[in-house]
Task: inverse folding
C-alpha cells in the first residue's frame, strides 16, 4: 500500500459520468498522483472517492469552444455519450435503453491547456469518455497539452459505439502517430479495454530529426532547382554564343578568301606592270633631224 509520501505528479481525467470508475483508474497508476484534475459533467459522489488525493473538479465536457452540450444517458450505469449510439452499442447491450438527456456545460480545451501545462510532472492523462476519444486527443495535441503527458490511459470500445467515434485499434494507431507507445492493456471487460501508453521521447527525437531532414531536403531541392535554372540559362547563353561564334568564323573565312583573292589579283597586276611590253621594248626610236 502506498502512503501519501509516495505520491507525486498529477492525474488529469476526462470522463462522462464515469465517476464510479475513477478510483480504479487512479489505483492503476504508478506512482500514485499527488493531485487530480477531473473534467466531467457529472459530479462524483463521495463514496466513489475513497482515499483520493486532492481533487479539482471542472464541470463540463471538453470541446472546441465554450457552450452547451447534450449528454446522452443510458440505463447501464456509467455509460454516457454526446453522439447518437450506433448499432454496435445496441448489439453489445441487448435491452439497453436511452434515458432523458442532460444539458451540460462544454469547456473549451484551449482554455484548459495552460492549467494542464501547470500540473506537476509526471502527468498521467486518463480518458474515459465514450465516443469523444478521437476529437479530444486532437484538441489536446493541437493546444500543446498532450505532449505534457508522461503516460496516457484510454478506456475505449473495440467497436465504434457512437456516431463519429473511432474503434480502439484505430485509436492506438493514432496515438502511435502522436509519439505514444502501448505499454499495457486491461481486458477485464474485453468490449471496453483499458489501454495504457507511455510518451516516447525517442519517437519525438526521431520525429524532430525527420522534420529537420525534411527541411534540409526541401532546402537542398530548392537550391538544386535554382542551380538547374542557372545551368539551363548558361547553356542557352552558351548555345547563342556558339552560334554567333560559328557565324563569325564563317564570315572570317569568307573575308580571308576575299582578302587572299584581292592580294592574288594585286600581285598579278604588279607582275604584269613589271614585265616590258614586247611591242614597245623592240621598237627603234627615230632620229631627230639635225643629229
Result:
Amino acid at each position: 500500500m502506498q502512503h501519501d509520501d509516495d505520491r507525486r505528479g498529477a492525474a488529469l481525467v476526462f470522463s462522462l459520468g464515469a465517476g464510479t470508475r475513477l478510483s480504479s483508474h487512479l489505483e492503476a497508476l504508478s506512482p500514485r498522483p499527488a493531485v487530480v484534475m477531473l473534467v466531467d459533467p457529472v459530479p462524483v459522489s463521495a463514496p466513489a472517492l475513497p482515499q483520493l488525493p486532492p481533487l479539482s473538479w471542472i464541470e463540463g465536457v471538453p470541446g472546441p469552444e465554450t457552450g452547451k452540450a447534450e449528454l446522452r444517458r443510458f440505463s447501464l450505469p456509467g455509460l454516457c455519450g454526446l453522439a447518437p449510439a450506433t448499432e454496435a452499442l445496441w448489439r453489445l447491450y441487448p435491452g439497453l435503453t436511452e434515458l432523458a438527456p442532460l444539458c451540460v456545460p462544454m469547456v473549451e480545451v484551449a482554455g484548459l491547456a495552460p492549467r494542464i501545462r501547470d500540473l506537476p510532472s509526471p502527468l498521467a492523462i486518463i480518458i474515459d469518455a465514450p465516443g469523444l476519444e478521437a476529437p479530444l486527443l486532437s484538441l489536446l495535441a493541437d493546444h500543446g497539452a498532450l505532449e505534457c503527458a508522461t503516460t496516457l490511459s484510454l478506456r475505449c470500445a473495440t467497436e465504434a459505439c457512437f456516431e463519429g467515434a473511432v474503434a480502439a485499434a484505430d485509436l492506438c494507431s493514432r496515438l502511435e502517430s502522436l509519439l505514444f507507445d502501448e505499454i499495457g492493456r486491461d481486458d477485464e471487460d474485453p468490449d471496453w479495454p483499458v489501454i495504457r501508453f507511455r510518451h516516447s521521447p525517442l519517437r519525438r527525437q526521431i520525429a524532430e530529426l525527420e522534420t529537420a531532414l525534411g527541411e534540409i531536403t526541401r532546402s537542398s531541392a530548392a537550391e538544386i532547382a535554382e542551380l538547374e535554372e542557372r545551368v539551363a540559362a548558361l547553356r542557352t547563353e552558351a548555345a547563342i554564343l556558339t552560334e554567333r561564334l560559328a557565324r563569325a568564323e564563317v564570315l572570317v573565312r569568307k573575308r580571308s578568301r576575299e582578302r587572299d583573292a584581292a592580294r592574288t589579283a594585286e600581285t598579278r597586276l604588279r607582275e604584269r606592270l613589271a614585265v616590258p611590253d614586247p611591242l614597245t621594248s623592240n621598237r627603234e626610236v627615230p632620229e631627230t633631224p639635225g643629229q
Q: What stands out?
A: The longest strand covers residues 67-73. Residues 4-199 form a domain with the Rossmann fold fold (CATH 3.40.50). The helical segments are 22-27, 87-92, 109-117, 133-142, 168-177, 201-274, 278-281.
